[in-house]
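Fold these two proteins, one after the other.
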Amino acid sequence: MNVIELIVLGTTKIGENALVVHSLSREYGRRGFVVRVGKGASPSLLLPLGIIEADITENPRSTLWNARHLSASIPLIGIRNNLYKNTITLFMSEVLYRTVKDGANEEGLYDWCRKSILTLDAMESDFSNFHIRFLLELCSALGFSPTFEDLLPHIDRNDGKGHFEALRGFMQSSFSESMLIPLSGADRNKIAEDILRYLEFHTESSINVRSLRVLHELFL
């Protein structure tokens, strides 16, 4: 039995008292674990991008291992008490769930993801552009490291020039500078869609992120 730290990407219910927790970990990469859910279990532990600890029991005869004795590794008070940040983590977890294939263990991905979550948790203001920066850094974390020219074939030119120039600005800015780029909700949405198309092409995945619409409505 190993005690490890997990980042929660989502859950799938199996039966009345069990869930598959889809997660990222340093040890196992992207992997699902079976968790037995009792009446007294706290659902807050399994919110998107929660950082938890669990006892993992490996089973050589099954691809689904058990996770027990779940507890919060870091409470993420700054995220959980903020509707906007919670919605951003919903988007981030959905993107990770759809881009990182089950069984993949990209070197450094877990530590980068953990750092991103803690950065968002600590921010007090000016985080409306965070999910765009997250997408660009995710490209690099997965080994693509795009230049602006690499993104050009995936940009929808019919959306006008505003988001085109803003995306160039993101590519040339530091993290703190990119948080201050003035954008409408519509342009944020368009930029996110451009980067998602790039990710779809390079991961050969269909990335239909439903939470992007919610972000658009919140960050007008």
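Now the second one:
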Amino acid sequence: MPDVTIPADLLPADGRFGSGPTKVRPEALEALARRATDFMGTSHRQMPVKLVVAEMRNGIAELLRAPDGYEIICGNGGSTGFWDAAVFGLIENKSHHLSFGEFGSKFGKAVSMAPHLEEPSVSASDMGTHPPLEPVHGVDAICYTHNETSTGVMLDPARVSTGDQLMMVDATSAAGGLMFDANATDVYYFAPQKALASDGGLWIALVSPAAVERIEQIAASGRYIPPSLNLKTALDNSRKDQTYNTPALATVFLTAQTVNWFNENGGLSWSAGRSATSAETLYSWASASDAAEPFVQIESQRSKVVATIDFDESIDADTLDGVLRANGILDVNGYRKLGRNQLRIGMFPAIDPADTRALTACLDYCIERLG
């Protein structure tokens, strides 16, 4: 590893730029520490915890500008767990999937293994792009990611459903960091360890009345559903401000802290605005650099929360990542399965845009010495 020491006056105040788990604000951790004896290590069925779950659910509904009749439900397991729950409790017969990265493709694969469902239809595109979001006939759910964490591709939600089709949007790395119209979705689901600056182990979903009706209809149909994946159970428990089984209490608390911070400062327009500012800084830097360029070529498809930056062959991205890590700039390594000479940089709302500007100065400093 080259011995490169970045001058202290160039370094960001906080060097965490991971794509998930991502930066947790020290202020939120300090608030959690103050609840060490009356919240942590207590029953999730009792009022002190239920009040924080209610605070989290109500805050998310406000942040995402939930339309009338939409509800916030939650359960354990993260977005991967939610895929399994959706296989049992939201897809009636056949679904359609857009595949343009690791996470969207995984949901489609989970559906294809379900013996009670038809083989899903899939629209795929080259990495670094997304396929068109278009109406599809013969399916009861259309599924895609708002932001593909693995490739840095963004696809704004739009309603193209016909009849009783559900629009199901994986927002794991988008919720809280990207603007969207909730009316364009029926199920907007995510985990809080990315844009919501919390820890993992929880899934959260904004669900429309149509999605609630589908959950209740399937639950009443006699289909076998494992109890821990039963969305009707999750719906019933969420309405009581609790989860079916014990959640990670720290995750719930930290999520509520972040959501409150967003809402107190202006809501989604403020939090997404911070990410957009960081994105403008980073993509402008990459476009002007002789050694780097944005991986996603179509500007409208470039994520504002996860940037993938390709580097010239004269700069080894893994070596650059190692030098940055040695200087306290963490988790900017590229997504391994993509197999490119690139860095992947989180630009979530908790990351100060000033730190993103500092990162570009650090990149210039390192590139000059490694090239």
